[in-house]
Prior knowledge:
By secondary structure, chain A is α+β, with helices and mostly antiparallel strands. Chain A has two helices and seven strands; from the N terminus they run ββααβββββ. In chain A, strands 2-1-7-5-6 form a five-stranded mixed sheet, covered by helices on one side. In chain B, strands 2-1-6-3-4-5 form a six-stranded mixed sheet. A six-stranded mixed sheet of chain B has the order 8-7-12-9-10-11, with helices on both faces.
Amino acid sequence: MKETNDHKDYIEVTVEFLSSLKEGIGLKDRKVKVQLTKPYTLQHLIEVLEKLYPKLQNKIKDSNKLLPYLLIAVNGYEVMPGTLDKKELSTGDEIMISYLGVGG
Amino acid sequence: MTKYSGYCGKFLRVNLSKGIITEEELPGKVIEKYIGANGLGAYYLYKETEKGVDPLGENNKLILFTGPLTGTIFPSSPKIGIFSKSPLTGGFMDSYAGGHFGAELKFAGYDGMIVEGKSEKPVYIWINNGEVELRDAAEYWGKSTTETREAIKKEVNDDLIRIAVIGPAGEKMVHYACIMVDGTHAAGRGGLGAVMGSKKLKAIAIRGTKNSIKVADEEKTNEIVESIFEEVRTNKVMSETLPTFGTTTATLANNSTGILGTRNWQTEVFENAEDISHIALKEQLFEKTLSCFQCPVRCVHYCKIKEGEYKGLETMKPQYETVYSLGSLCGINDPKVIAKANYICNEAGIDTISAGVSIAFVMECFEKGILTEKELEGIEARFGNGKAVIALLEKVVAKEGIGEFISLGTKRMSEKLGKGTEKFAIHVKGLELAGHSIRGYKGMSLGYAVSNRGGSHQDMRHIPERSGQFDRRSIEGKEQLVVDITSTTVIRDTFTYCAMVEGVIGRVGLTEKHVNIINAVCGFDFDLEELKTIATRILNLERCFNIREGMDRKDDTIPGRFMTEPIPEGPSKGMYTPKEELDEMLDKFYKLRGWDENGIPLQETIKELGLDDIVKDKDLRS
């Protein structure tokens, strides 16, 4: 059973930075655990990550907008652009952030 | 001479049977209809070969063309396109290589060349600034690609020449032999190295310093070039990821979304993907970054194995497709084994994708008891056995015993074996599948199925579905998506800019950007509709070539595994493309393309596209 988010002060998710996203933002490991208070949305997670790693903003945004070639997946499912504020997260979720490579 | 800029206005015709070399004008009318590499290759191959020509016979032709951007100041457009009837698919094949060869050819004064006939003894073509000769290559026959390249440089006493060369695999006509270019790139797909070998042509060497390639509108071209440089500089993929890792970051991204081909696509999650990640490859292999002609991206890497059994081995880096085919697809989790296998392929001159997919097929046959250890000459071809991959590759290169069987490619191996193996023979039209999931992208299911090359990821592209811009789990609208993307890729291959800068020029459908580029460089006066018609014309001409060779709807299909076995685990679990879905997409796609229900271009389509001067109705409907 997946945990629900009711009656919680925070949830804990794992964020994995792929491509060259990890480089130069002060991260030792590619995967980090992040505690997220309400709202438990992907949009809020991105804001929290930007605060935790200030140099990340330059890597994922241009003119304060997410780069169009950014790939964000939650538990392996790509999240459609423009729906980050609607994507609710739960404890244990695995978020992957990557640039869209060309893959050959 | 043509009135258009971006061209030399002439090409070479090399008749190997007669030993005659001539120059021919590239007619303005042909340029206007077909523009460059992909277009010119399709035009001359269709026009100059007969139906049913033997791919490895004297009458097949090997055609090389650059595009109008090649050799100009336009960035990231170094490609040489090579065209022929493929021994692997029996259909139209185009394959493109980066590096410096294409630009050098234009600097020597030629837009391309048509090689015809067959030499009695091994030869190479030496192009020295407009002076062209056939030279004896007997002493290079049997040598590796690097040995040959170095020896020819020594022979002509010039370290800076550019060389396209085949290795022993091409000489022995392994069906997926490739042509290595400059030692850094390959025209890898479809067995064009075998065609070259069948003609006893070991290499084409070029020195070009006398010709410079002008553009029509310098101011406009400079403006476009500056904007592209700026986009490359600010785009994180092109300025950070590709120079650091090449395309290998796709391995983990694909694995984490459950679409990484693993153990012959029995699954699409590789439990050891971390071991062959972009980071592992960088740490264990990468030495330095290289660049193609006039390219700011620099996605190519030279590598050196730093420890273990293959310590000290120097080779070009494996890109993502090789990490997929010789890595996860064979269950291999050691970057050093992948690098060693890549080295064997590069030196012998074989396509890493087809080689890896063919070996993965053999491994599944072995594990299912269809091929025995005795039949495999003592090789225990289990998934994950690195030594088996290396041993099988070496047998393919030698084309001896079981190696001769594997050198036929997946489709023919399966036809010979029977026993239901066609279901997991991973090819389309005979061309082994690249590393982008059919089951995981509905658009790729259709795109692969209708690709004129077959299992190539360079016609239909996966990125628009990858980004979430188009839902990869739905078939809705995918017929239009395939039309739009393939119009763009055929123009990419006609202008000859690289797939690495597709992102800044545009991936889904042609736009004014494409029109502005070609008009500024060449001095055309095309509008968007005209450019779309040219793209459609080229795609249809390739299609007509395949129809003439007996292909039709029956060949627009995907491996049985992907139509009947859902992805068994991971985030994309349950995804597959049943035949009914593929048929529905095909019906809609054919209608959009102006083809009949059997996938054959209608006569009015041929006429509208101005192809009726070379495509005859009888060729399509016999």
